[in-house]
Design goal:
heterodimer; A: 120 residues; mainly beta; Immunoglobulin-like; three-stranded antiparallel β-sheet; 1 helix; 8 strands; B: 145 residues; four-stranded antiparallel β-sheet; 40% strand
Chain lengths: 120, 145
């Protein structure tokens, strides 16, 4: 393992940049996680917390020493708080070329119902 | 700058700024700019046999990445489309931090880099360029008669 991947991954984490958009059907979240292979990506939803975590894996020759480093770690992590009207059970994810696209739909609204007005 | 100039999420911007300040300061910026907060971020390193450049450039079509090596200067250029909606009336943007638009980064290669021996691959959103060093530049012991 080169120095690039193993040691630094545990030291600190990077907050990946995201775009978050909302339309009437729900939320779309796009996150940049360059270097993370599919198997290195972890998505969790626990109560109302969505956690995106990924460990990048870069290939390099043995003995590689970095001389200039703008990406200080290879461990990405970011946590978002979801709101009640979103349905974490229905999240769909696509991950391609280091870009994660999540769709978090709104909970299906209960059908509109007529409310009886009691006349007293 | 790397982040949006009209921040929609102040806390997220602060986190990004904090991250940037955690990075070691570049003592001797290049005449072509150190480009610290530009896209794509670069890690550069090497071994006695090669120079390795990693450009963290997610979401590109590898066929559209322009890579040019001219007299020891490696230039990486391209464009990344915005994913934010053009019409914000139907889709509200809550956070817009990701880079979009044209980009260009330049790396000065060491003198012993061999322009005839370059390979580049794009995997999981990272462009990895490997340049061999000329064999003559490998240090060797000189015996004293």
């Amino acid at each position: 393992m080169s120095k690039h991947s193993a040691e630094q991954a545990t030291q600190q984490t990077i907050v990946p940049p995201v775009d978050v958009m909302e339309d009437s059907g729900g939320i779309t979240l796009v996150a940049d996680l360059p270097g993370v292979p599919k198997e290195g990506l972890q998505l969790h939803v626990e109560s109302d917390q969505l956690t995106i975590e990924g460990i990048a894996r870069l290939e390099g020759p043995p003995g590689l020493q970095l001389t200039h480093q703008e990406v200080p770690a290879l461990h990405y992590r970011r946590v978002f708080t979801l709101s009640k009207e979103l349905d974490p059970e229905q999240v769909t994810a696509v991950f391609e070329h280091g870009v994660l696209r999540l769709r978090i739909p709104r909970v299906q609204q209960a059908r509109p119902r007529r409310i009886q007005i009691q006349v007293g | 700058m790397y982040w949006n100039m009209n921040p929609r999420d102040v806390m997220a911007e602060l986190e990004r700024m904090q991250r940037d300040y955690q990075q070691p300061l570049d003592q001797n910026p290049s005449i072509r700019g150190n480009g610290r907060s530009r896209f794509p971020a670069l890690n550069v390193g090497g071994t006695p046999e090669s120079v390795e450049i990693y450009a963290f450039a997610p979401g590109l079509d590898p066929a559209t990445i322009e890579l040019l090596l001219d007299r020891g200067v490696l230039t990486l250029a391209g464009e990344r489309a915005s994913e934010l909606p053009a019409d914000e009336r139907r889709t509200a943007v809550h956070i817009g931090e990701r880079f979009s638009g044209r980009f260009r980064r330049v790396v000065n290669l060491p003198e012993d880099a061999d322009p005839e021996s370059v390979s580049a691959s794009y995997r999981d959103g990272v462009l990895h360029v490997s340049v061999r060093r000329r064999v003559a530049a490998t240090p060797r012991r000189i015996s004293v008669e």
